[in-house]
Write a structure and sequence with these properties.
Elements: H1 2-13, E1 21-33, E2 41-45, E3 62-64, H2 74-90, E4 93-104, E5 107-114
Antiparallel strand pairs: 1-2, 1-4, 2-3, 4-5
Length: about 120
């Protein structure tokens, strides 16, 4: 009985937390590949994701593509990273969908890149 009361209290009194996704229109200014940290591949962007009110808790300037495969398949992550490479060399603007509920070392995950 006591555990039922505790369970009900948790359900009614714990504030839910919701993941946010934000859209960031930006240019890729640098790329990084790492053997262990940051989801193994990242891009530095000219428009910081943390300035978007929907995803303000992201660290500034960098996003991870999760090449380690923790949030999505490695294949998708590597294609996203390849798109970021192409955007860097062509100096084109990309549109990133950034998810603040999934992070590597505090940097938010760019789950989609439109080039």
């Amino acid at each position: 009985m006591r555990s039922l009361i505790i369970m009900m209290a948790l359900v009614f009194f714990v504030a839910p937390s919701f993941a946010a996704k934000g859209i960031v229109e930006t240019q890729i200014t640098r790329l990084m590949a790492d053997s262990e940290l940051f989801g193994r591949c990242m891009a530095k962007v000219s428009s910081s994701p943390h300035l978007n009110s929907d995803i303000s808790d992201c660290k500034s300037d960098w996003v991870t593509f999760d090449c380690s495969g923790d949030f999505a398949s490695k294949d998708v992550a590597n294609r996203s990273y390849a798109s970021a490479q192409l955007a860097l060399v062509t100096e084109k603007v990309v549109v990133l969908t950034v998810n603040n509920s999934r992070k590597h070392n505090g940097y938010c995950w760019a789950e989609r890149i439109n080039f």
